[in-house]
């Protein structure tokens, strides 16, 4: 990670940031000053910042940084028209735009690029409509995932996609990354809940895609193309989502195993019983250790791995009975008492986000493999950690075969252990290679962003990538929308 | 419907078909003869037909025809390489290709266009893989929907999307139209079950999109873009689908109403109880009459409208109890006995496909509206039928707000009732207008094909359509893939 923070002109010249406080213009080229004046002209003072502290905060999301840039300015849109104004100004001056929700992404999809504007949508946070009979809601992109759920709950409804960041992340950000979450195995990912989008295109025009109905097949599925496109094809300013029924009954089961691979096998055993849990989370010993440290529990004493399963709906109790039976048969110690403790564990898992932020001594991934390969992949990960002499911690949305392995080590002095970081990244690369070899993907739910571009070529051959570049070019001929991300 | 069957040269000249029997070349231009020779050169004799009977059979699907053309030839691909050969031959000679599964589409998506080759994929009908632990299958496009389900059932799995044509239609055709079906409200449409595609592109190259895992967000969602594109962007030659769990328990409820609008209100009542049925079919009096005629029942005596509901899974019995309770409270006569009769009715409904084929005295639609507008829309349809003096019959996948209204009349002599057909089509147009006004879509699941292009401009403004045309151009610069369809 570079400590340098430079503001670069779009014409190529780079100048050190001399912006100090407020919205002073300093250290910019004449073209940039002209652009910034035009940009500011259509906005209120509260909507634009150029002080170094703000630029720094908004220059990255929670993903690892490869090369750090400060944006020219941060703009907070408060309306669709604001977004259109920003896009038109940027288009006229060839200035890149990095749109951003809460900045909770972990792949660098919202990292500032050279000479860009960061366009924050967090203030466009109104729930415009919530129709309990249609079972739909229309929201602005800055609505927090948990807030939509809070609004839907009194109607017996929920917005299903629940990334671990659901208390902080925005629906717009979830749409940009096609976010997954804990209960995806049963309820689907973000794309499966999005019916329609309002999108500001690269020329500043407003386009509506999709339909307000559950089903609709008129023309190409532009909505699905935009979901997960990480702000590179257009800027989502309105989202119509389908809501699902809030389950009346939820049963939670905690199953402790003495061995991680047996726990992974438990996932397959539940599948073979043809029970579809809402949540099926797999935690290894390293994760239990971390949870004990953070919350003072004794999880490690009870097992070396934990499988957390939640069933929900009218059949929750009967499903939970089957789950307990097959897990016990597979050697697990299964909670049979009221599931209060297990529920608490799910909450801990849900909120473990934040301690997962990568730094240079911790590298994380988001590989998904076909479910039948879960046990093999977990075994391979353990072997890699041993071979590269690094530590391993794994949590997995196991129902989806989506693993978040983290290779890590205690902070070392590069002088005494020069190749520590090399070993760490070698383990990471190896995990990617093996995951792909098993028929997996390099990203189950976090997105490519900026960070994972290095591996995308391993998953997608050149013609597939070229086709995507041409789609990008069609939507954004100038290449101003979040350049250098996603594809 | 025109009785004319013409074979047209790609250079514009049109000749009457003089092709008689076998694979004789007659009545073609020199360029066409050269193309046909090249095409035949890479195929076995059994794979190509040019006799008039075959050309006629393969010139249309089950959709209404606007302008009928015979193809130059029908080709049956038996491998990916065959498809590549056909596409390359057609690309070299600028010959349009209409790919086709079982031809059960009802929007004319597989109607032959002028001077085209019809490429049948029905012989590519192998299930290449079915992995019970991965809960996925890989199939060739010609696999019949019901056959995949038959193969999956012994493993406790099912392929969820179940269009009424499921005993005849192919998975490839289902993918081309993003087919819906009866149990979509709970299990999603085709797109929600498709994980990956193998696609022959317009230049004959083979591309792989998507992922073998349940989740995957690497790059743009090309898979979703291709699903529902009706063979206009590429020819799907392989499909990886996610399978769902075959429910162990199914409960079926038949609820008779004396009034269609009350039955529609029952759909909302079930929704308000936050019960998610697998199937929720609404049948009006006209449909009951038809079923009685076909099967000799007494449905009409029992009510003027029927709501058929199926709950499934571990909670099926408890869900069925709630459904019965809310429907009875809404004035329905609800079956309380063992649901054998209700199940039989669902089977009748499932297999009512075939009698629904439109002709000039029967025009059908596929409108979907937001669920809250179901009752209003049904009331409007009844008013339209009265106003235009035509008869009405409606079945609806009511859980999705997706209606199949049919306006019809007994065969009339145009000499005595000159404006009969005008009234019929006026009612149809009016139903489209009102459906759109209510926030609906012109097609919930059948696709635009050729027939619904006339209304697409009412739903999608020009910039959205232009964007789709440009995507089409990007995938298919020559415009040889199913031209004049879908967008």
From TrEMBL, chains A, B:
Region named Disordered: 1-27
Coiled-coil spans in chain: none
Enzyme kind, highest EC tier: oxidoreductase
Keywords noted in UniProt: FAD, Flavoprotein, Oxidoreductase
MF terms in GO: (S)-2-hydroxy-acid oxidase activity
Span of domain FAD-binding PCMH-type: 67-246
EC number in record: 1.1.3.15
Cofactor(s) of this protein: FAD
Pfam family of the protein (one): FAD_binding_4
Name of the protein described by the UniProt record: Glycolate oxidase
High-level lineage: Bacteria, Bacillati, Actinomycetota, Actinomycetes, Micrococcales
């Amino acid at each position: 990670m570079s400590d340098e923070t430079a503001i670069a002109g779009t014409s190529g010249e780079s100048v050190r940031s001399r912006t100090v406080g407020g919205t002073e213009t300093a250290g910019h080229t004449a073209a940039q000053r002209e652009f910034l004046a035009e940009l500011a002209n259509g906005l209120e003072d509260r909507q634009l910042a150029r002080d170094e502290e703000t630029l720094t905060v908004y220059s990255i999301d929670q993903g690892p940084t490869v090369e750090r840039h400060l944006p020219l300015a941060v703009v907070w849109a408060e309306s669709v028209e604001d977004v259109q104004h920003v896009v038109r100004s940027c288009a006229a001056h060839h200035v890149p735009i990095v749109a951003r929700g809460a900045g909770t992404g972990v792949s660098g999809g919202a990292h500032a690029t050279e000479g860009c504007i960061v366009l924050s949508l967090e203030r466009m946070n109104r729930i415009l409509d919530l129709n309990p009979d249609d079972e739909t809601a229309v929201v602005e992109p800055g609505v927090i995932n948990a807030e939509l759920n809070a609004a839907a709950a009194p109607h017996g409804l929920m917005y299903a996609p629940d990334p671990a960041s659901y208390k902080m992340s925005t629906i717009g950000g979830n749409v940009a990354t096609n976010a997954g979450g804990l209960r995806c195995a049963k309820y689907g990912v973000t794309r499966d809940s999005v019916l329609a989008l309002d999108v500001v295109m690269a020329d500043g025009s407003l386009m509506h895609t999709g339909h307000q109905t559950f089903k609709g097949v008129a023309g190409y599925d532009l909505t699905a193309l935009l979901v997960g496109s990480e702000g590179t094809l257009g800027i989502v300013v309105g989202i119509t989502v389908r809501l699902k029924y809030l389950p009346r009954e939820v049963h939670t089961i905690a199953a402790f195993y003495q061995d991680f691979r047996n726990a992974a096998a438990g996932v397959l055993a539940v599948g073979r019983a043809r029970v579809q849990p809402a949540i099926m989370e797999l935690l290894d010993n390293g994760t239990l250790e971390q949870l004990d440290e953070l919350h003072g529990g004794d999880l490690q004493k009870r097992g070396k791995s934990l499988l957390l399963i939640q069933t929900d709906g009218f059949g929750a109790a009967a499903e939970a009975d089957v789950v307990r039976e097959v897990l016990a048969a597979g050697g697990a110690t299964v909670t049979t008492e009221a599931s209060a403790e297990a529920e608490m564990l799910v909450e801990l898992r849900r909120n473990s986000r934040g301690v997962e932020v990568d730094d240079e001594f911790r590298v994380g991934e988001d590989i998904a493999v076909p479910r039948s390969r879960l046990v093999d992949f977990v075994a391979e990960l353990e072997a890699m950690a041993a071979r590269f002499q690094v530590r391993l911690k794994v949590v997995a949305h196991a129902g989806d075969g989506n693993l978040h392995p983290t290779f890590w080590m205690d902070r070392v002095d590069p002088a005494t252990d020069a190749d520590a970081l090399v070993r760490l990244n070698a383990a990471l690369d190896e995990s990617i290679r093996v995951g792909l070899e098993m028929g997996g993907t390099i990203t189950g739910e976090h997105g490519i962003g900026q960070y994972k571009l290095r591996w995308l070529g391993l998953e997608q051959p050149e013609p597939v990538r070229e086709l995507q570049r041409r789609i990008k070019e069609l939507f954004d001929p100038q290449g101003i929308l979040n350049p250098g991300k996603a594809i």
